Amino acid sequence: MPDIHVSAAVIIDDDDRVLVVRKQGTTRFMQPGGKPEAGESAAQTLIRELHEELGLLLDESDLRPLGTFVAEAANEPGHRVVAAAFAASVDPGAVTVQAELAELRWITRADVSTLPLAPLSLEHLLPLAWPTLAG
């Protein structure tokens, strides 16, 4: 199964909600982020993607590495996504839908069972935010 390398952000607000986004032409929500451009580190990729997709201006000191996680790709059948994940804190009021995004949502634990979510989010990234979801 071919791998797709990405960087992804786990962003939690002061109300314990997690930011998820949905790209145009897709149905599943996922953590914001995306694929690297040539020569970018995982952190540089995420900083660029968060700026392009959400209008956020962050630097590497704003990111906390969480690890690398592998799951079935949400939007590319027959592929796996290999994600370098980072935690970040942002002002929810500073986040706006831009670029290829169709929608963003700040979700609670209760929303997990009602939203179509990417496997990476369900299996790995949301349990980092809310450990009670793990297992």
Structure, briefly:
18% of the residues lie in helices and 31% in strands.
Topology:
Elements: E1 3-11, E2 18-23, E3 33-34, H1 42-54, E4 64-72, E5 80-88, E6 101-107, H2 119-129
Parallel strand pairs: 1-5
Antiparallel strand pairs: 1-3, 2-6, 4-5
Explain this structure to me?
This protein has a single domain (3-133), classed as Alpha-Beta Complex (Nucleoside Triphosphate Pyrophosphohydrolase). The model has no long low-confidence stretch (mean pLDDT 93). The strands form 2 sheets. It has a 4-stranded mixed beta sheet, with helices on both faces. It has a two-stranded antiparallel ribbon with strand order 2-6. Strand 4 (64-72) and strand 5 form a beta hairpin. Helices cover 18% and strands 31% of the residues. The chain is of the alpha+beta class and 135 residues long. It has helices spanning 42-54, 119-129; strands at residues 3-11, 18-23, 33-34, 64-72, 80-88, 101-107.
Look at the helices and sheets and give the structural class: alpha+beta
The first-level CATH class is given as Alpha Beta
CATH architecture: Alpha-Beta Complex
Proportion of helical residues: 10-25%
The dominant shape is: globular
Distance between the termini: 25 Å
